[in-house]
Amino acid sequence: MALSNKQKQFIEKKGNKLSNKQISKELKIPIDEVTNFRSTISKKKYSLYFNFILLLIPIFIIFILEVSLSVFNYGEPYKQWEIVDSQMMMCNPEIAKRYFYTTDAVPYPSQDLFDINKKENSLRIFILGGSSAAGYPFTPNGSFARYVRKRLELIYLNKTIEVINTAMAAINSYSLLDMMPGILEQKPDVILFYAGHNEYYGALGAGSLETLGNSRWLVNQMLAANKYKTVQLLRNFIKRIMTFIPSSEEKGGTLMSRMAKDQMITFGSSVYQTGINQFEGNLDEMLQMAKDANIKVILSDLACNLKDQSPFVSIDEENVSSANYNYNKGLKNLGSNDSTKALAFFQKAKDLDALRFRAPSEINSIIELLAKKYNFPFVSAVKRFNELSQDGIVGNNLMTDHLHPTITGYQEIGELFVTKMLEENLIPNSKVALTNNSIQDKYVRKHYNFTHLDSTIGRYRLTKLKGDWPFVETSKSLEQVIESFDVQDFSDSLALFVIDNKYSWERAHRKMAIWFFKKGDIKNYLVEMDAVIFQYPFVYDYYEMIANNLIGLKMFNEALPYLYQYDKIKGTAFASKWIGIIELSKKKSDVATKYLNKSLKYNSRDAQVFYNLTGAYAMKQEYKLALNAINSCLMVNPNYKGAKALQKQLLGAVK
Question: Quick check: helix, strand or coil at residue 163?
């Protein structure tokens, strides 16, 4: 006879207090039924506890492992921002290690510093993208970020302008989505988006060497898990195992050639569609984040070389659906002066190119559609570049290679973004600035911080790029590429050192500047140092070094702007002293007294400052203050030249 629910509940409740015999007697049921039921209860409890313990054991082991790895500082912190000093920070130069699992030489973002605590009068712009947004091959001073910053500094003389370029070569929407929350935390006023060319061969892309599969959800979850040391340990273990597996893959070559795992991705294939889907999904999430944070994003479509870049890989030479067929039709129509048809054929040839280094037209359509969906401003680099090109089709006139713009091309993109910010009233006093749009644009282009050395570095980078696959069938070694450089002078040698990773960009420019200074070519000395200062405006030593050199040559007027910049960034006795002395020489006594007194706050034992302060007060006919200043000068240095005679004159004036 089966036990009733009431009897079962009684047994479960009294089981720990009464024996089977007592329960049997109490319930008036056979003892074997009590025994059988109690055994099933034990099994259930044992099974529950056992499964719970089994679950806890691996969690506990992983927890202990994670703590241990953290204690011993294993792996990388993968932090997004790096604190430079107590006030400034920048994008972590090694952040790309989050996204590159097997590639050793990873790209790095521009070292753009910005305030840890955003100032009230600041204007903060972030830039997201790949190598085109980074300014390749003219990184860092050739990017459109530089144009944007220079234009904004021209418009807002009294604001702190922060343009932070987080773009890097060979990254795509996976990396950008991963960085987006950290960027939004920094409270940008506007985000500029120029990305999409790397969706297939960029890190974690659909056809990349660095891939985690085709599941967008899985890839994004793995990126989120990268901060855990245990995950890094597993990554490194797999990487170590992979080194023992024979591979025909070449280790050399450019990053571009090494990242292209599945070289051919045909139009409409599953891999092609995966790339489209990952871009659309990731960009959609990014824009939703920005919308939720009430931060505007300006998006641009992607320009590339249509007219002068033949398809890298054409599946069929004669078929109407082949890249080469359409490219040749474009050339033929161009020869017949039918530029409209030629443009259509060139665009189709690019889309059918099975080597997807240039974003297909569908990527541009997604960018424009998502901009409309979220009501974000959109600009068209494609339209602008075609408008500026002969026959209305962009080619080598604005492109250095298959997709990276020339300096003029980068300036055009920058102008598009700034004008859109003004038109959409995303930055203060936009209407006033728009009236001078053309004048400001001309000024910025004329005073771009881009030197002959930058041009040579860019030329050498392009030579290196085009000496490798897919531009040539047989890749050249780095030694062969270097031999092909036409190294003629000191500037060329410095550019070569940069390409060969022996000098940093900054060191090469400083070396070039010193070379000019020793030659007595002060104009070009300042050109080089201005380029360095524009890239690293918060490195105080540069201002003092330049001012010292110019003061030593008695070029006081030339030194003054650098002293003012120095004083604005960091108040020092040196900067304020020399501002005061130089302004005094210009008979500007009020300015002189202000800065000379400021200098004394930093160093109250400088006889030269007291002497010049005496002159400034005397010029203002404030003779008592002048006498106090000269007395202080003599207290610091009783033998200061001319001080006693000046003291005697002032004593007579005061009486």
Answer: strand
Q: What is the pLDDT of residues 580-622, one digit of tens each?
A: 999 999 999 999 999 999 999 999 999 999 999 999 999 999 9
Cα dist. 482→139, 236, 253, 467, 512 in Å? 19, 34, 13, 10, 20
Which residue has 């790309």 as its token pair?
A: 96
CATH number for domain 539-654, candidates 3.40.50.970, 1.25.40.10, 1.10.3720.10, 3.30.450.40:
1.25.40.10
**What's the chain's Rg over C-alpha atoms?**
34
Q: For residue range 372-420, what is the model confidence (pLDDT) as tens digits?
A: 999 999 999 999 999 999 999 999 999 999 999 999 999 999 999 999 9
How many alpha carbons fall within 13 Å on the CB side of residue 73? 0
Mean pLDDT across 527-531: 95
The answer to whether 353 and 312 have CB atoms below 8 angstroms apart is yes
pLDDT digits (tens, 9 = 90+) for 426-443: 988 777 777 888 899 999
Distance between alpha carbon 264 and the CA centroid of its chain, in Å?
Answer: 30
Name the burial class of residue 600, with classes exposed (0-12), middle (13-18) and buried (19+) by CB atoms within 10 angstroms of its CB.
buried
Where do the domains of the chain lie?
Answer: 5-71, 81-245+255-313+353-446, 539-654
Average pLDDT, the chain: 88
Strands 88-91 and 81-83 come out as antiparallel
pTM to 2 decimal places: 0.84
Check pLDDT > 90 for residue 474.
no
What one-letter code names the amino acid at 141?
N
Tokens encoding 537: 């405006």
Q: At the topology level of CATH, where does 81-245+255-313+353-446 sit?
A: Rossmann fold (3.40.50)
DSSP, residue by residue, 621-639: T-HHHHHHHHHHHHHH-TT
Domains 81-245+255-313+353-446 and 539-654 equal at CATH topology level: no
Residue 610 has a CB neighbour count (10 Å cut-off) of 25
Label residue 294 by pLDDT band (50, 70, 90).
very high
Task: Give the separation between CA 32 and CA 121, rounded to whole angstroms.
Answer: 85
Place of tokens 């680099």: 381
Distance from C-alpha of 323 to C-alpha of 350, rounded to nearest angstrom: 7
3-state secondary structure of 165: strand
Question: Rounded mean pLDDT of 199-203?
Answer: 90
Tokens of 329: 């039709």
